[in-house]
Write a structure and sequence with these properties.
CATH topology: Rossmann fold
Helix content: 55-70%
Shape: globular
CATH class: Alpha Beta
Radius of gyration: 16 Å
Structural class: mainly alpha
CATH superfamily: P-loop containing nucleotide triphosphate hydrolases
Number of domains: 1
Number of strands: 4
Order of helices and strands: HEHHHEHEHHEH
Distance between the termini: 25 Å
Strand content: 5-15%
Length: 179
């Protein structure tokens, strides 16, 4: 979900593993030659964004598979880390790419936080996040959480509570990496 800390924690996990880190939002913006997710949503629409996410995700997995096979012994090869946008798994094309990645050894960690924690974080810094409904933030997040729950749960290899300090969340994810 938005505000759960995917990018913040992703950077920390990558640093911990001495691995590469990418953010699907940044890759999608690059694909569109755009500078703002919010601008893409406002000028080109959500469908354009979802198509860019899918294209960027496909390109990322193709590139990563040429560099290293994530199913190789992770004690020797640090896995690349990718923060996937919260809406990507709800797009069928992106969902299939993520499912295929799991079949080749990629691990998907679902980071969760209660809605009130997300609202607090996003109230401090909404960043470049686009509103997806006309509802107040708490209602929007609750609605999206309900709609996306099935996609998240079918993809996740593990779930981590991301309500606490990012360093603690990073440690929890790192502990999962070698299980």
């Amino acid at each position: 979900m938005r505000g759960v800390g995917k990018t913040t924690v992703g950077h920390l996990v990558a640093k911990n593993f001495k691995s590469s880190f990418d953010d699907l939002d940044a890759l999608s913006l690059h694909f569109l030659s755009a500078s703002s997710v919010r601008d893409v949503f406002q000028t080109q629409g959500e469908q354009t964004w979802r198509e860019a996410e899918t294209a960027a995700l496909a390109k990322y997995f193709q590139s990563a598979s040429r560099q290293q096979n994530p199913s190789q012994d992770s004690r020797i090869h640090a896995p690349p880390i990718l923060a996937v946008g919260a809406g990507a798994p709800a797009n069928l094309s992106s969902l299939r790419l993520l499912q295929d990645a799991r079949k080749t050894g990629w691990r998907i960690v679902l980071m969760t936080s209660p809605i009130d924690v997300l609202v607090k974080r996003l109230s401090i810094d909404l960043g470049d996040r686009a509103a997806l409904t006309e509802h107040p933030l708490a209602e929007e997040l609750a609605q999206l959480a309900r709609e996306r729950a099935v996609f998240y749960s079918t993809l996740a290899d593990a779930e981590v509570d991301a309500s606490s300090d990012p360093a603690i969340v990073c440690a929890a994810i790192a502990a999962l990496a070698f299980n």
